[in-house]
């Protein structure tokens, strides 16, 4: 359903863009013809037709800019991708034969959270297209980490150079250092770009209907002077250019893309904090497995992830900034074994690695 709705709203963007541009250009042409025609019924007909077409274009633009069809389509594409990912995760867990009641509850909560984050209907539940400021997408329920009461015993293990469930002090420091890079570079950059695109989208959404509205008013005064004849034609042409840039360039889709990317890093931050802040290592995800999954999500190998952590630690001690981002997705494409792997088999293999570590 999300995939079908996404395709429908992508068609909305194309059809509405073409229709509004044709209406605006036709009205501009009529205003230009009226300026060079004589007085009488033909002039009145052209002026009235131009004004009506500009008014219709203004109303359609207001609706189109309010709902942002390109952004709606991107929301449904993200929902489709996330539901497919959740489906693959459930299928892998069933294939491995280790689903628990807790896992079933989490899966249900994830489905409901996704359905709430990316609603299908528009009226009443549509995501705000022009918020006051950029906010990362949030599509997963927040998990409360359980804290163990055996803090003194755990601290004693840590003082002895602990290693439990794949975790040790060095791995914790590495994960924290990577998180610092994500916060200072990736998340800040997406926030900056998200706010910039949001401002551009707001400006264009106001400029388009404003120009067609000016053209509609100006077309009623065509024939009463040279300037009154120029205004509707120029305003109509500018409105067509603005509309084409906003919806043809899919600025709303770009805004949603940045919001989704910000949500991706926010999700990783929450996952890291849930594991690192959990006092009982047995309640955490396996440390070595968690490190592998973090590296894959950032498009890095394990050695690249550890190099990044060392750079982050060094920059913190020296008071400098890291000169690279945490994400490095081109590294994944270069590794054909990962790029061409079946996702279900890859996740299945990682789960099997986790099971081996737990047995050891």
Automatic annotation (TrEMBL):
Name of protein: F-box protein
PANTHER family: F-BOX PROTEIN WITH A DOMAIN PROTEIN
Keywords linked to the UniProt accession: Membrane, Transmembrane, Transmembrane helix
Species this chain originates from: Trifolium subterraneum
Parts of the chain that traverse the membrane: 12-37
A Pfam family it matches: Chloroplast_duf
């Amino acid at each position: 359903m999300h995939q079908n709705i996404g395709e429908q709203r992508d068609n909305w963007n194309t059809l509405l863009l073409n229709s509004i541009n044709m209406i605006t250009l036709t009205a501009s042409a009529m205003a230009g013809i009226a300026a060079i025609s004589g007085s009488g019924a033909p002039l009145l007909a052209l002026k009235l037709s131009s004004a009506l077409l500009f008014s219709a274009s203004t109303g359609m633009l207001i609706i189109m800019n309010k709902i942002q069809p390109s952004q709606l389509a991107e929301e449904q594409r993200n929902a489709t991708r996330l539901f497919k990912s959740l489906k693959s995760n459930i299928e892998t867990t069933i294939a491995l034969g280790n689903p628990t009641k807790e896992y079933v509850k989490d899966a249900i909560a994830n489905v409901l959270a996704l359905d709430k984050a990316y609603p299908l209907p528009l009226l009443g539940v549509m995501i705000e297209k022009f918020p006051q400021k950029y906010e990362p997408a949030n599509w997963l329920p927040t998990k409360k980490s359980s804290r163990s009461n055996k803090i003194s015993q755990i601290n004693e293990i840590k003082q002895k150079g602990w290693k439990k469930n794949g975790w040790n002090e060095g791995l914790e420091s590495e994960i924290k250092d990577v998180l610092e890079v994500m916060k200072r570079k990736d998340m800040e950059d997406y926030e900056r770009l998200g706010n910039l695109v949001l401002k551009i989208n707001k400006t264009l959404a106001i400029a388009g209907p404003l120009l067609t509205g000016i053209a509609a008013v100006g077309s009623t005064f065509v024939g009463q002077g040279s300037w009154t004849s120029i205004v509707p034609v120029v305003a109509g042409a500018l409105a067509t250019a603005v509309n084409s840039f906003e919806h043809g360039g899919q600025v709303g889709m770009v805004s949603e893309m940045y919001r989704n990317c910000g949500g991706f890093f926010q999700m990783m931050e929450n996952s890291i904090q849930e594991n690192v802040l959990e006092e009982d290592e047995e309640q955490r995800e396996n440390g070595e497995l968690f490190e592998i999954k973090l590296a894959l999500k950032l498009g890095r190998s394990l050695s690249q992830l550890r190099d990044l952590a060392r750079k982050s630690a060094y920059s913190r001690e020296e008071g400098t900034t890291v000169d690279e981002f945490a994400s490095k997705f081109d590294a994944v494409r270069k590794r054909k074994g990962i790029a061409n792997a079946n996702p279900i088999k890859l996740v299945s293999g990682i789960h099997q690695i986790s099971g081996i570590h737990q047995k050891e």
